[in-house]
Specification:
This is ADP-ribosylation factor-related protein 1. Pfam families: Arf (PF00025). One of its GO terms (cellular component) is Golgi apparatus. This protein has helices spanning 2-26, 38-57, 90-102, 167-179, 203-210, 233-245, 248-262, and strands at residues 76-83, 118-124, 128-135, 154-160, 188-193, 220-224. The chain is an alpha/beta fold. The chain is globular.
Length: 263
């Protein structure tokens, strides 16, 4: 009985093997690369590249929920403080910035009044968003400046270059700004305003008047110009954007924002 059982098992094995060989013979052989049309190979390569791109896109996607982080697609947004003593021309500068970048007329000069509190201006281009915070420069209002330091990416400090009597006050106020720990590393644009006036000094003369040693510790630029006619503004703003884009401070602020959004 045992021998008969083993014989039956052997016949069964041979039958199955024969059936498998017959099935394999009916299958189409795998094509070699030379036999595959070029268009097919290109299609496969395109599909492979698309899959790789999809994998790269998934770096910004939550693996569990499929949520795509808004930071993958959003533009960089920078907050810029516009500071300076009373009547330096800060609000006039902000209105001219909006006029230059938004191609819209700002407030007429005769309607611009000294800022009490805060003016906000926003501009946007293909790459970045800029939010400007224009703060009042009267002595009693300067205490609110520091409330905006922590979230600012950069500072525009406006000085009336035609008012020599204000230089000492402007220097003192700027020194306090530069010494504040919450503005450490923030790029600084010093705008020597009102160059259209006969009494205006050059940016070199203004730099000598200010004599600021603290400027060596951060990216800075002196720019002579006029908030009245727009001279020098675009050069200064473009420089400031470049500095903010590569600033270590920007990395710190962005990381802080992303952490806060996750909480």
């Amino acid at each position: 009985m045992a021998r008969k059982f083993r014989g039956e098992r052997e016949r069964e094995r041979r039958t199955l093997a024969a059936a498998w060989e017959e099935s394999r013979a009916r299958r189409s052989p795998l094509p070699c690369r030379a036999c595959v049309p070029e268009t097919t190979r290109r299609t496969h390569a395109t599909a492979t590249a698309a899959a790789a791109a999809a994998d790269a896109d998934d770096e910004g996607r939550d693996n569990v929920t499929g949520f795509v982080s808004p930071h993958v697609f959003s533009k960089a947004e920078f907050h810029v403080l516009i500071l300076g003593v009373h009547k330096a021309g800060k609000t006039t500068l902000l209105e001219k910035v909006k006029s230059i970048y938004l191609k819209e007329e700002g407030l007429p000069h005769d309607r611009i009044v000294p800022t009490v509190g805060l003016n906000i201006g926003r501009i946007e281009d293909a790459n970045v968003k800029l939010v400007f915070w224009d703060l009042g420069g009267q002595p009693g209002l300067r205490t609110i400046w520091e409330k905006y330091y922590e979230e600012a990416h950069a500072v525009i400090y406006v000085i009336d270059s035609a008012a020599a009597s204000s230089f000492e006050d402007a220097k003192s106020a700027l020194e306090k700004v530069l010494h504040h720990k919450d503005l450490q590393g923030a790029p600084l644009l010093i705008f020597a305003n009102k160059q259209e006036l006969p009494a205006a000094v050059t940016e070199e003369e203004l730099a000598r008047h200010l004599h600021l040693k603290e400027l060596d510790e951060r990216p800075y630029m002196f720019q002579a110009g006029s908030a009245y006619d727009g001279t020098g503004i675009k050069v200064g703003i473009d420089w400031l954007v470049e500095e903010m884009e590569r600033s270590k401070r920007t990395e710190v602020l962005m990381a802080r924002t992303e952490t806060a959004e996750k909480i």
